[in-house]
Amino acid sequence: MKFNIPSKQLLTRLNAVSKVISNKNAYAILENFLFEIEGERLVITGSDMETRMTTTIEVPGAEGSVKFAIDVKRMLNLLKELPDTAMTFDVNEETMEVNITYLNGKFNSMAFDGAEYPLKSPSSDDAFTFTLTEKDVYDGIQHTVFAVGVDEMHPQFMGIYWDIVPDGITFVASDSHKLVRYRKTQVQPNTERGFILPAKPATILCGIIDKNGKNDVRITVDETSATFETGDYTLTCRFINGRYPKYNAVIPENNPYTLNIDRVTLLNALRRVSVFAAVGGLIKFDMHPDHIVLNSQDLDHATSAEEVVQCEYDGVEPLEMGFKNVDIIEVLNNLDTETVCVKLSDPTRAGIFLPSQQADGEDLLILQMPMAI
Fold first, then answer.
1. Cα-flanking dihedrals φ and ψ of residue 185, to 5°?
2. How many distinct structural domains can be found in the chain?
3. Does some domain include residue 373?
4. What pLDDT shows up at residue 23?
5. Looking at the structure, do residues 108 and 202 belong to the same domain, yes or no?
6. How does pLDDT run across 259-308, given as a tens digit for each residue?
7. Which of 36, 214, 289, 371 has its CA at a distance of 20 to 30 angstroms from the CA of residue 137?
8. Is the pTM of this model over 0.70?
9. Helix axes 263-274, 325-333, angle to 10 degrees
10. What is the pLDDT of residue 182?
11. Host domain of residue 34
């Protein structure tokens, strides 16, 4: 069985598929790419049992059909060192010997029988399908994935919750210290379902779609998994088991004080003041009608810092709150407007960070818990 393929095209596809493959696999076969020739198409698959990605490449003139699994690291290392050149794969279907030739040389390797590679689980009978644009999917993931938790004791926080209703989708992520809620109101899935998408496949999905793309992503959801089809890629992943908490219940509704401040100015000031913060990263926010004073100190090293930033604060009395520096810097990095609006009530309750202007059909809210001063 023979087929020809450009080396750079193959490297691009293998790089994308390799993101799925784990460094530690339950089965040795999963340390390989699965290559399948179907007519004049090459189908490449990678899997870690929880997440599976396939991509297709046209290979005109392919002779025969075969299914074989070839080592991930060896293929990637080889292709990274090759110039952009035509490659010919010649596979002995009986011995699984693979001969790879190109203009100036050849390589030889042994492969596994592709029949040993785990099959994709079929979708359940209650599966439903809807479509979103690439931009809708990208925005939903990128606005929330930074807030996903990493504590394995609370697995439901280790992914992005998709709360699907007939006339919109809400993407939610939380690490129990911060919570992000991002609503898309100009989409119509025409169904009602919720699932928790793990952070790994969510990040991989963002890598294979155009962040400004208008092409459709076809999404099929069943009881245990979701399949995303876009362009030449198909990504299937299992959900995180568990019920996601009622996220709206933890968002304070009565926030009488409002702070409006230039995002970049505050961000840069926080970075400077953070240099002198103690190990816990506490930054004090002392808010006044026309300015905010940022304070940090490290008593163990006898260092401190203070910086004044202009703002608009409508509180009757000055308000002092503490926030962890890395948390607030992360929040500000994930808001993209010039001005940030912060809704506050008292030093013990969460602050709500909002963009000064919401884009059409979008509603972004970030809740951040304070630190004790």
1. -105, -5
2. 3
3. no
4. 86
5. no
6. 999 999 999 999 999 999 999 999 999 999 999 999 999 999 999 999 99
7. 36
8. yes
9. 150
10. 97
11. 2-116
Domain boundary (116, 148, 182) is at: 116
* Of the residues 247, 267, 289, the one at which a domain ends: 247
pLDDT at 125: 74
For position 107, which CATH number holds?
3.10.150.10
Judgement on whether residues 307 and 363 belong to the same structural domain of the protein:
yes
Same domain? 261 vs 305 = yes
Instruction: Say yes or no: 222 and 138 in one domain.
Output: yes
Same domain, 137 and 106: no
